[in-house]
């Protein structure tokens, strides 16, 4: 049976109208599901009994999955939550504290099919897409772990959001709906390895979320070795679709660049990235790599990172370095592997 929380409010409205009832009941139902966090039909109040009974015959309301395991970083307080859903599929979420903000990093899939060579999630392969309610469950658990306040949401956990876009979009619409959590779309970011149809779908939608693109390296030959999706969506096409997104939405993009020692941290690589970044409205985020069990990559040194940063800045590129967070609990970038990599006990 389908869970009613896998639908948006306009879809609920449509369902309720099709049952011959007043569309206004959709808002009351939405309030119960997302403000009151109803965990069963018995907890849905304020609807005609007959309507509730008919909905309950066709749709379930299962309680949100709750983390099976929680780890807290002794270094910086980063929290990693491991979810095990009813069919055994797993996913991880992270609560990050940085710059005075609390950020929930959510997963969109259990595992990932993209197979980026530096990423622990990629080594798992794809188990399955997460349903909207499973994404919402991560948000609620992060909110509880934070506790009480989250300032931003990033889809940078396990999975490629644009390969599960219908469910991710539904989750975003439900999170940001004024009858529910009313989380501002402007504080939600989706990060992609470069799925061109996904970028185009976002450009064509009316969502006001932010877009981040994992460039990894501006050299297309080198990128093909690190990011298998390069074969399907070459960086030149990814950047062309990002430019289109910027023009249509009047927004900039974030270019994510993980620095690997001796691979993509050279001055020549910095100049190549600067040349690319000059072609579109963007901010470059330099990300420190954290070695995962079984991965052959090493993080760039502080010296090469500084040099890389200065070359970009010297070329007029807006650039930030993302501080390392949660490395001791394998919660950092590229380390999420649903407990498969070595995590210290809490
Ligand atoms: Fe998937 Fe992202 Fe990891 Fe690549 S970096 S394998 S897209 S989760």
Q: List the total number of helices.
A: 11
* Strand composition percent: 15-25%
Strand order of the largest sheet: 3-4-5-6-9-10-11-12-13-14
Number of strands: 14
Pick out the low-confidence regions.
341-346
User: What is the approximate shape?
Assistant: globular
Structural class: alpha/beta
Distance between the termini: 37 Å
Question: What would you note in describing this structure?
Answer:
This protein has eleven helices and 14 strands. It has helices spanning 9-18, 25-34, 49-58, 120-124, 132-145, 165-176, 196-204, 220-226, 235-249, 267-277, 302-314; strands at 2-3, 59-60, 69-72, 79-84, 90-98, 101-105, 109-111, 126-129, 152-155, 188-192, 210-214, 253-259, 282-288, 319-322. Helix 7 packs parallel to helix 9 (235-249) and helix 10 (267-277) runs parallel beside helix 11 (302-314). The radius of gyration is 21 Å and the shape is globular. Residues 341-346 have low confidence and may be disordered.
Task: Report a brief summary of the structure.
This protein is α/β, with parallel strands linked by helices. The protein has 11 helices and 14 strands.
Write a concise keyword list for the protein shown above.
10-stranded mixed sheet; two-stranded parallel ribbon; binds iron/sulfur cluster; 346 residues; 19% strand; alpha/beta; globular
Please outline the helices and strands:
Layout: E1 2-3, H1 9-18, H2 25-34, H3 49-58, E2 59-60, E3 69-72, E4 79-84, E5 90-98, E6 101-105, E7 109-111, H4 120-124, E8 126-129, H5 132-145, E9 152-155, H6 165-176, E10 188-192, H7 196-204, E11 210-214, H8 220-226, H9 235-249, E12 253-259, H10 267-277, E13 282-288, H11 302-314, E14 319-322
């Amino acid at each position: 049976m389908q869970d009613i929380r896998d639908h948006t409010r306009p879809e609920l409205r449509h369902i309720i109208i099709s049952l011959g009832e007043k569309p206004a009941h959709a808002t009351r139902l939405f309030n119960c599901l997302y403000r009151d966090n109803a965990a069963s039909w018995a907890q849905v109040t304020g609807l005609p009994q007959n309507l509730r009974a008919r909905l309950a015959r066709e749709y379930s309301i299962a309680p949100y999955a709750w983390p099976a395991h929680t780890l807290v970083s002794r270094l910086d307080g980063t929290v990693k939550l491991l979810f095990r859903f009813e069919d055994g599929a797993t996913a991880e979420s992270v609560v990050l504290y940085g710059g005075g903000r609390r950020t929930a990093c959510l997963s969109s899939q259990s595992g990932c099919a993209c197979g980026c060579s530096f990423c622990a999630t990629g080594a798992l392969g794809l188990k399955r897409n997460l349903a909207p309610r499973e994404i919402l469950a991560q948000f609620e658990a992060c909110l509880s772990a934070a506790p009480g306040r989250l300032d931003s949401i990033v889809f940078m956990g396990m999975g490629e959001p644009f390969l599960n876009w219908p469910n991710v979009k539904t989750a975003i619409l439900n999170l940001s709906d004024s009858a529910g959590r009313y989380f501002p779309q402007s504080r939600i970011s989706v990060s992609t390895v470069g799925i061109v149809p996904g970028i185009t779908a976002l450009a064509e939608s009316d969502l006001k979320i932010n877009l981040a693109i994992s460039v990894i390296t501006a050299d297309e030959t080198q990128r093909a070795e690190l990011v298998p999706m390069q074969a399907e969506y070459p960086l030149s096409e990814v950047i062309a679709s990002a430019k289109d997104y910027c023009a249509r939405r009047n927004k900039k993009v974030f270019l994510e660049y993980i620095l690997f020692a001796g691979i993509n941290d050279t001055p020549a690589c910095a100049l190549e990235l600067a040349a690319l970044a000059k072609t579109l409205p963007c901010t470059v985020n330099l990300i420190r790599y954290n070695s995962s069990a079984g991965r052959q990559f090493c993080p760039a040194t502080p010296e090469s990172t500084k040099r890389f940063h200065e070359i970009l800045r010297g070329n007029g590129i807006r650039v930030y370095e993302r501080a390392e967070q949660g490395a001791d609990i394998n919660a950092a970038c590229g380390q999420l592997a649903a407990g498969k990599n070595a995590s210290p006990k809490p």
